[in-house]
Amino acid sequence: MHPRPAALRLSTANPVSKLPRPPFGLGGWSADAQATAVLLHVGDVGADDVGALFAQIPKATTLPSGTPMFVLGTAISRVNAWRHLLGGGSVRVPRATRCTALVARGYVDVGGGIDESTGLDLAWGCAP
What we know:
The chain is 16% helix and 27% strand. The protein has one domain (9-126). By secondary structure, it is of the alpha/beta class. It has a five-stranded mixed β-sheet with strand order 1-2-4-8-7, with helices on one face. The protein is built from three helices and eight strands; from the N terminus they run βββαββαβαββ. The longest helix has 10 residues, at 95-104.
């Protein structure tokens, strides 16, 4: 069972023009929330490269104990303008890759699943 925060902050390596909708039926993202969801960015290396992705997730030791961290299942990819207009620009990151990245960054109680309210694929962990 994953944690269910009352508010969630979005963390992303690069600014995005269109924010994804938040999970858990939340009405929007909160800049003041401790619980965080990470929107990954995938460059030329691909969505299976744990090393390139895990650096985008804050180290668990930098957060208060018990703080939940979620990693969204769809990442923003770098594409040319034509591909972006044709629906490109995002790529699925395997749940196993996201969970491995959370473990590598020091999170505990790592898991994954589908959010019932939005259908989003999530990976999660908590700061020890």
